[in-house]
Amino acid sequence: xxxxxxxxxxxxxxxxxxxxxxxxxxxxxxxxxxxxxxxxxxxxxxxxxxxxxxxxxxxxxxxxxxxxxxxxxxxxxxxxxxxxxxxxxxxxxxxxxxxxxxxxxxxxxxxxxxxxxxxxxxxxxxxxxxxxxxxxxxxxxxxxxxxxxxxxxxxxxxxxxxxxxxxxxxxxxxxxxxxxxxxxxxxxxxxxxxxxxxxxxxxxxxxxxxxxxxxxxxxxxxxxxxxxxxxxxxxxxxxxxxxxxxxxxxxxxxxxxxxxxxxxxxxxxxxxxxxxxxxxx
Amino acid sequence: xxxxxxxxxxxxxxxxxxxxxxxxxxxxxxxxxxxxxxxxxxxxxxxxxxxxxxxxxxxxxxxxxxxxxxxxxxxxxxxxxxxxxxxxxxxxxxxxxxxxxxxxxxxxxxxxxxxxxxxxxxxxxxxxxxxxxxxxxxxxxxxxxxxxxxxxxxxxxxxxxxxxxxxxxxxxxxxxxxxxxxxxxxxxxxxxxxxxxxxxxxxxxxxxxxxxxxxxxxxxxxxxxxxxxxxxxxxxxxxxxxxxxxxxxxxxxxxxxxxxxxxxxxxxxxxxxxx
Lengths: 281, 275
What we know:
The complex is a heterodimer.
Chain A: E1 9-18, E2 21-31, E3 36-40, H1 47-55, E4 62-67, E5 73-76, H2 90-94, H3 102-111, H4 127-140, E6 145-149, H5 157-174, E7 177-182, E8 194-198, E9 202-206, H6 208-211, H7 215-221, E10 238-240, E11 246-248, E12 253-254, H8 265-280
Parallel strand pairs in A: 3-7, 3-8, 5-6, 6-7
Antiparallel strand pairs in A: 1-2, 1-4, 8-9, 10-11, 11-12
Helix pairs in contact in A: 3-4
Chain B: H1 5-29, H2 33-41, H3 43-53, H4 57-78, H5 83-104, H6 112-117, H7 125-154, H8 156-161, H9 166-188, H10 193-205, H11 211-236, H12 240-256, H13 258-271
Helix pairs in contact in B: 1-7, 1-9, 1-10, 1-11, 2-5, 2-10, 3-4, 3-5, 4-9, 7-9, 10-11, 10-12, 11-12
């Protein structure tokens, strides 16, 4: 475990309540410099909400969210809604939250392979180009903490690997902490130091590397050879039984998990994955 | 020179347009047209208040608009109603309430048509001073908050995540809008103020490659619409507000003509590299 002094951001039993419902609850999380923490989980599991607590966009209804004072944060949101009436070139977008020279803009865009897009209008970019431009803007700020909400959204498979490689490289060269969201249950970076699986609460967490040797997860996630892809480690303290009941590690059973926990995820994810393997094979 | 009512109206109108252009760009980028409508319809309540308390109209309208703007911001944040329904409700209620209040004050003679559609005969040297004083203040503040407001417009979450506190910036922007509505009332009238915010900005979009460029072009297009509209108002004895809006719309239609779009391409290719 890292020293608490070096932590860039720390959530302590943090949760958000909206209109009487808990969107997410009881999240413990910390990101240290040079560390990549990945949040995964199904839609509506509270990944973005958790990231927004870490960023300070949302204040936790319970628990705490602390950021290191004076920390520079760069945020790559899931998507941008740019109105057609807004003329916005990539070069101008790069300067959205801080001043940059043309050379700095170009250098940051070159690092993400988007240099040729400098004078393009943001509205004309494809999904992959948009992600590269948003990443370039984020690293141009030279952040201490980089928060990425689904950075491979709308990107094809080859582009996905390239972007994950790019993120590992950014971590190496900038030495920043990275908090990343992936909706993808089966594709997670090998470089991630910690994977946290959310489903309204923290379901399980661990390093992805151990898991790649686990036979059970080979069966579940397939034997992909590329180093940029790995599986996450599961440490369930409970098992979901076919009849919807939950058996805890101590052997007790109950009708549902504690907290706001509905849990369609793992069954769905494995079904989806097996389908994927059949299609591929 | 200020003795001539038409010159006064012209100076006042151009002043209003120069401020409304850049502010209007943000109104359309942020999809707040209806919000502007609500604020301007409430201006009638301000007029009623000024007559009741016998204070300066622009100040009373400004005060009411600012108050309503703050209430609207608070309601928007609480998510009680969808924004659209909420604004529609408030917009027309405010207009109706203003008209009813004015009708109750039987002891004052009110030029209702002038309030709703603008009256170039009504512009006094004091109005001009308020337009240029208020307008300069609005533009100065807009320049100061520009980067933060623009970032919050592109993505409020991104701006908040990177520590720009968009909610503060948005509140300031709303107050600026309220001030512009107060100073535009006499020239454009309560019903059509939003048009002077939106149409020149939408017209400028077709000639602009960057947001800053669009703000400047919108100000110039607005000024041109004011000059054209006021001259036709004088010549054909039409109310000034609708005449200005018709002129602005004519400019917008011209901007849609294919030949004009070539100009836009040239503009974007020469200005595209600039920050």
